[in-house]
UniProtKB/TrEMBL annotation:
Family membership: Belongs to the DODA-type extradiol aromatic ring-opening dioxygenase family.
Metal-binding listed as a keyword: yes
Biological source species: Onishia taeanensis
Protein name: Aromatic ring-opening dioxygenase, catalytic subunit, LigB family
Highest rank taxon of the organism: Bacteria
Alphabetized PANTHER family for the sequence: 4,5-DOPA DIOXYGENASE EXTRADIOL-LIKE PROTEIN
Cofactor: Zn(2+)
Gene Ontology molecular-function annotations: ferrous iron binding; oxidoreductase activity, acting on single donors with incorporation of molecular oxygen, incorporation of two atoms of oxygen; zinc ion binding
Lineage, broadest ranks: Bacteria, Pseudomonadati, Pseudomonadota, Gammaproteobacteria, Oceanospirillales
Domain Extradiol ring-cleavage dioxygenase class III enzyme subunit B per the UniProt entry, residue ranges: 14-269
Amino acid sequence: MSYRAAATSLPTVFLPHGAGPCFFMDWQPAGLWDRMAAWLSGLTKTLEETPRAILVISAHWQADTFTVNTQASPSLYFDYYGFPDHTYRLSWPAAGDPELAAEVRKRLTEAGLSSSEEGQRGLDHGVFIPLKLVFPEAEVPVVQLSLKKGLDPAEHLALGRALSPLRDQGVLIIGSGMSYHNMARLRRGGADVDPDSRAFDSWLAETVALPDSARSSRLMNWASAPGARASHPEEEHLLPLFVVAGAGGEAAGKKVFEDEVMGSVQSAFVFGA
């Protein structure tokens, strides 16, 4: 695959990946994840061209340095527990892209960011569960890139900026997480939406709609936002948003999807569209 200039610059996307293999099993109440599944299934229709490759930053992989999966044929890593047997037999045979993996490392080096490579770890459920809906035929090569332990906001915004030129080479950069991820409150259930979730989601929508410099300043101080720590006791499910925001360039981002699931607001955001 040749990473030359594409016809258009692709956007960057932060998407909610749901709970475990939620889109591929019966759930109670029935239909709980249907709206999110439908949005994921229609995501490619919003793109002006089919990506040459996909680069995914998942909430479910942290490493000592930013680490790139270099496999030509990655397996799947079923990193969820206690779900029906059939969900451990799901398949999604997307090819890897060693050339893109090398290009990612080159970009990080040029930006002064250290990186490593990984040749054994499979694609985790933050990758294959949502992308099995987005690209059901697994026709586009996929490379996974880790978060960096410590979850420093500045480092992940810088990571996104280093990756941004790949958008002009036909690479779709996806951050896979959840805009609200307080598992204790999600498990509690209930019909009412957690007010902290609604407050934080409103702050996120307002923040991503700002130009890059103002957006980055607010994201750097995200923990002081209304409902922030109640929504993310740990921030690994939020940091993929920082990467795609950094990669989105100067233009304002926008919320493109919102759902209410298990007492939380869950949203998707697009940058550079």
